[in-house]
Amino acid sequence: MAKPTVLVHICCAPDGLFVMDLLKDDYDAAGFFYNPNIFPAEEYDKRLQEAENIGRLRGFPMVRGPRDHELWLKMTNKLKDEPEMGRRCNVCYAMRLNRTARIAAGRGFDFFATVMSLSPWKKAASLNRIGRMLGRRYGIPFIEADFKKKDGFPRSVEMSKSYNLYRQDYCGCPYSRRARNP
């Protein structure tokens, strides 16, 4: 019997590797790299390449979304002074999950999901609320999760070390980069 299909938003290779391994037994999963928040372009390219590498390594297809950084800046500009995990992050989550849901529904996937809840700097409750709302809008169920539970994040760190994956030290956006490197 065929497994249900899921399009999984992947923000970075370390989180993608761990979550895709969790989902592989129950789903036929494809990755989706859509991260217009990532800045500068060199960082974006590095994360995209690493995400595509884990797709090849683990044997799942990767779909590449557009960069859309200028649109992301327009959508978040009024919230640029918000703290990390503030309202700006919710706008960013919604932008990325909206594109994921739209692509998943348009391509006939059974579900959509994101790896972002693995990060201790991402709010799983907000991601799940936004995912449910977008699932209703596009008629495709969102897989709700908090992947950081049961030591998910430390386990992902260990996995990424064993595969020598690039681990970034900020979410990717220029605002969090500035906060990390004043």
- So, the CATH homologous superfamily? HUPs
Distance between the termini: 53 Å
- Number of discrete domains: 1
Mean pLDDT: 94
Strand segment tally: 4
Query: What is the name of the CATH class?
Result: Alpha Beta
CATH architecture: 3-Layer(aba) Sandwich
Q: Per DSSP, what share of the residues sits in E-state strands of 2 or more residues? A: 5-15%
Low-pLDDT runs: none
Which fold name is given in CATH as the topology?
Rossmann fold
Strands in their spatial order, largest beta sheet: 3-2-1-4
Query: What Rg, in angstroms, do the CA atoms define?
Result: 15 Å
Number of helices: 7
Percent of residues in helices: 40-55%
Could you give the order of the helices and strands? EHEHEHHEHHH
**What structural class should be given to the helix and strand makeup?**
alpha/beta
Overall 3D form: globular
Largest sheet: 4 strands, parallel
What does it look like?
The protein has helices at 13-23, 41-58, 69-76, 87-106, 124-138, 152-162, 174-180; strands at residues 5-9, 28-33, 62-64, 111-114. With 182 residues, it is an alpha/beta fold. It has one domain (5-180): HUPs (Rossmann fold, 3-Layer(aba) Sandwich). The chain has a four-stranded parallel beta sheet, sandwiched between helices. The chain is globular. The mean pLDDT is 94.
List keywords for this structure.
182 residues, four-stranded parallel sheet, alpha/beta
